[in-house]
Amino acid sequence: MLIxxxxxxxxxxxTPLTLYLNRRRFIEGAAAGAALLAAPRLGRADTAPAKLQFxxxxxxxxxxxxxxxxxxxxxxxxxxxxxxxxxxxxAKDFHTRPxxxxxxxxxxxxxxFDIDEILKQNPLEERVYRHRCVEAWSMVIPWIGFPxxxxxxxxxxxxxxxxxxxxxxxxPKQMPGQRGRVLDWxxxxxLRLDEAMHPLTLLAVGLYGAVLPNQDxxxxxxxxxxxxxxxxxxxxxxxxxxxxxxxxxxxxxxxSEYGFYSNxxxxxxxxxxxxxxxxxxxxxxxxxxxxxxxxxxFNGYAEQVASMYSGMDLIRNF
Length: 318
Ligand SMILES: Nc1nc2c(c(=O)[nH]1)N[C@H]1C(S)=C(S)[C@@H](COP(=O)(O)O)O[C@H]1N2
Ligand SMILES: [Mo]
Hints:
The protein is an alpha+beta fold. The protein has 8 helices and 13 strands. Helix content is 18%, strand content 21%. The strands form 2 sheets. Strands 1, 4, 5, 8, 9, 10, 12 and 13 form an 8-stranded mixed sheet that branches. A 5-stranded mixed sheet has the order 3-2-11-6-7. A hairpin with a 4-residue loop joins strand 4 and strand 5 (137-147). The chain is globular, with a radius of gyration of 19 Å. Molybdenum atom (MO) binds next to loops.
């Protein structure tokens, strides 16, 4: 995502991506030379993250996966910083325990669930999904998680429940970005109930076989692979079933640019740039800058999700 005042092309297209990749090459080169291995700012975890137990899902793309280094050092997480590189270091000591997720609103069995209880009760799967940011870069990520539908079924949505609102933790002591007013905190997102119940919609708790890195939304974040990345809210503490379409942070910020649906759609340009193509960060290309590929309707998940939008004008309902 990017702030309104910035120039008219997605920032991933210009200096930030190039700078990031140049620095990465420099760091890798230095690490190979061993001279800087002990320096704290190398951006590599010094302790291996805890492994998770999971089964592999057949609902996975076989496209080349994005290197872990890019997934963990090219992040959007404005609670830490608006640039893509610093969430990795700024989120390093973020506390993901104790952590509870409150599920409330129009449900017959509301509850506040401890994250470790959630992990115990929901068998985990690995799903390799395409991940398309509205800024026209994309990744392929081996997420580990479970369908959001499992948790929603547990609390039993009331007949009147039509939408789900998600809220990120508000903790400015731990999240330096929340000490400023770059966004209206806490970050919120929403889905229609059928989208939330869709079997592709995941609550992710890990990636590449291990617990989620903090900068990727630990301990629990949403993944909705046919929508732009900003729908996939990180650090979730509240899930509320409601009867009206809830607000979402980026819609609030710039309603002419970011809608409620935010389905990936190559035919509907962002007012300031084209959405017809994307830069796939898969380790290929000069300096690992990826390659330009056409963007697919619903990010390639049309067969599974298009029927939810039949009869809707997806240019107007963007
Ligand atoms: N709480 C919160 N969730 C967030 C964001 C954010 O700034 N804060 N950024 C969003 C955007 S714009 C994208 S593209 C994805 C990026 O996820 P990733 O860093 O794991 O690739 O997270 C989304 N979820
Ligand atoms: Mo994004």
